[in-house]
Structure formats: C-alpha cells, structure tokens
Design goal:
seven-stranded parallel sheet; Rossmann fold
C-alpha cells in the first residue's frame, strides 16, 4: 500500500548525525514537516537547518532520551509546534561494546533505557496523535544485530532484539487500524555510533581502540543511501526494511539456518 510522506509530520529521534540527519533531509525533500529530536544540540540545529532548506516546516527538540521525564514532555512539544504527528521514527540509539562479563549492571541498564525503553515510551506518548490520522506509521530502527547475535555486543543485541519483538507484536495489535509498524534493520552504515560508544569500565582504552579498529571496515554504507532505502520502505509501508547487502546476506543466513549461521561469525579468544 502506498503511503505518502508529503504533507505529513514526522517525529525523528537521533536526528543530529548519521542515518538520522540523512533521513531528515530525505523526508524533507519528499514534502514532510519534521520534528527533529536529539541530545546533541549543535548537531541538532545543523540538521534542522539543512532539512529546512528542503522546504518544509522543521522544529528542533533538545531531548536526552535517557531522561524519562524529558522524554515524556516531547509529544506535547510536538503538538504545540505542528498540531499533529503522522510518522514516528525511533532512530536514536547508543552502543556499548563488551562481553556480558565486561558490562556492569548500570551500563547495561543505561543502554536499554535509550535503545528500548525510550522508543516504547514514545510510542505510548504519540499513539493518540497517530490514531487520529487517516493513516500513520511507526518506524522502529533495530539493527542487523536485532536479527543475529554478535559476540561483544551483549547489551546492544539485547536492546535491538527487544525492539524487534515489541514492534512485531505491536503490529499485530494495531492490525485493522490506520497505524502501521515498520521495523528497520540496518547493516554496517558509516556512522559514528561505534566511535561514540560508551567504553565499559572493565575494558582498557588500548583494548577498546583495537576493537574499534577491527570493527571500522564493516561500516561502509553511506548514510544517504541508507536514508533513501528507509524512506522508500516507509512510502511502501514495508513491515521489514533491511538496509545494506551485509544485512540482507546475514538475514537470509539466519532465516535458513537459525543455529548454524553462528558458525559464520568470528569470536574473540576467551583468554
């Protein structure tokens, strides 16, 4: 079913850089008004200015999604700025590399708060506005690591599998309403999420930098291409939007061999 973003109001979290900033420009080009959300204030204003040059109305909302109270105020701020919401894109996310034994309880909970709890809170907060639209869309950004397990990413995988389960169940609950749910699984997109990841307290800086250097070559897809794929998927109301050849390959491997695919994934020496 075709779904036009033209004339719609899009709430987009994680809009200051990477996929979020590229998606803001892409959706603005397609005629959407935007409510951009991020905790990076300079990046947020830069993204808002760039998207604003594409023509539509753009508002900037400085919100740290780890703050439950601040996140709770966002729906009314968007209503005041735009009067309505037709698309909610939960794109914001953080990374926390490290094996389960290397992660503290507070570190794990911090990541889950931003990557899972905040999107759930925002879906709840915006639902009344979304239901008031003739057609609306919730777009939750998971990851390739929401399709496959990855060593050294215990917390990140947990959050991305959780958003996948939430989205798939919510889609069924909303069947028959005007609100659809798209789930996005990007592969290795060339963003700063890895470089900006929190370093676990138990991991030495030198070891962390070595791991980043190993991971960096996997981040190849330009954010602009990822954004176009996501925007096309939203327009087609795709339920599952897989972004990048690496994600497509591993998604297929996991579907065909849900246990054996793990033999394709290298692991660090436990020693």
């Amino acid at each position: 079913m075709a779904f036009s973003t033209k004339g719609g109001v899009v709430v987009l979290t994680g809009a200051a850089s990477g996929i979020g900033a590229a998606l803001a420009e892409e959706l603005a080009t397609r005629g959407a008004a935007l409510a951009l959300v991020d905790r990076d204030l300079p990046g947020l204003y830069r993204a808002a200015a760039l998207a604003g040059r594409r023509g539509g109305k753009v508002s900037a909302h400085h919100v740290d999604l780890s703050d439950h109270a601040a996140t709770a105020e966002l729906p009314e701020a968007v209503r005041a700025a735009h009067g309505r919401t037709s698309i909610l894109v939960n794109n914001a996310g953080v990374a926390l590399g490290g094996s389960f034994d290397e992660l503290g309880e507070d570190e794990f909970a911090w990541l889950m708060r931003i990557n899972f709890d905040a999107p759930v809170q925002l879906v709840r907060g915006f639902m009344a506005m979304l239901r008031a639209e003739p057609a609306a869309q919730i777009v939750n950004v998971s990851s390739l690591f929401g399709l496959i397990g990855a060593p050294g990413n215990t917390a990140y995988c947990s959050s991305k599998f959780a958003i996948r389960g939430f989205s798939e169940a919510l889609r069924l609950e909303l069947r028959g309403t005007g609100v659809g749910v798209s789930l996005v699984h990007p592969g290795g997109v060339a963003t700063n999420i890895a470089n900006g990841a929190r370093v676990p307290a138990m991991v030495a800086r030198e070891e962390w930098e070595r791991r980043l250097a190993e991971f960096a070559p996997m981040l190849r897809l330009p954010p602009v291409k990822a954004a176009k794929r996501i925007a096309d998927g939203i327009a087609r109301r795709e339920q599952r939007i897989v972004v990048g050849r690496d994600a497509l390959m591993m998604a297929t491997a996991q579907r065909l061999a849900p246990v054996a695919y793990q033999r394709m994934i290298p692991t660090r020496d436990a020693s």
